[in-house]
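Hi R.,

Here's the chain you asked about this morning:
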Amino acid sequence: MIELIDNSLQITVLMVCAALSVYLAVRHGSRTWTLLSFFYGSWLLGDVYWLSCLIFYDRTPQISLVSDLSWYAAFIFLYMILRQVSPPEKLKRPGPAVWIGPLFAAAMAVYFMQWGQILNNIIYAGIMGLLFYSVTCRISAEGTEREKLLLPYVILIICMLEYALWTASCIWSGETLMNPYYWCDFLITLSFPFLLAASGKARKA
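And the predicted structure, written out as C-alpha cells:
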C-alpha cells in the first residue's frame, strides 16, 4: 500500500511538472524547456509502467527493462540540459573534483552488482558518471554565474538521492515507513518542482 501511494504521488507531481514544462517549451520555443519536458516524460513512463505492475499484478515488475530504459533516458536528458544552459566550451578551468563523481559511480556499480544485473549496473555507472562529471565541472569551474549554479546542485541532489534509494532497496525490505527507501523516493518527488525552477533560473542567466 505504501509503495502504491508513493508511486501515485510521484506520478502526479511528474504530470504537473511535465505539463508546465511543455507549456513553457511551446510558449518560449526554448530547447531547455523541451529537454526538461522529455526528462519528466521519460521518468513518468518508467513510473507508470512500475505502478501498472503493482495495480494489475500486485507486485513489482519481474522484467524492469521498460522502466530502466525510461530512467536511462531521463538521466541523459538531465545531462543534455546542463550542456544546453552551460556549454562546456564556456567553462573555465574546472577543478580536480570532477573525477570524484565518475569514481563514485563506478564503485557503487561494483557494489550493486551483488544484487542487480551486471549490464544494468554498468550502463547506470556510465550515465551517472558522465552526469556527475558534468555537474562537478559546472560547480567547480571558475567564474560560473550564481544563477546557473542552482541547476547543477539540484541535479546533484537528485542523483545522490537516487543512489541512497538504490542502497536502501538493497539493505532494507518491507512496506513500512521505517524503510528509508520510501523517504528517499519522497524527497526525489519533492525535488522535481525545484528542478523546474532551477532550469528556468539558469535559462534566464
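The longest helix spans residues 2-28.

Let me know if you need anything else.
M.
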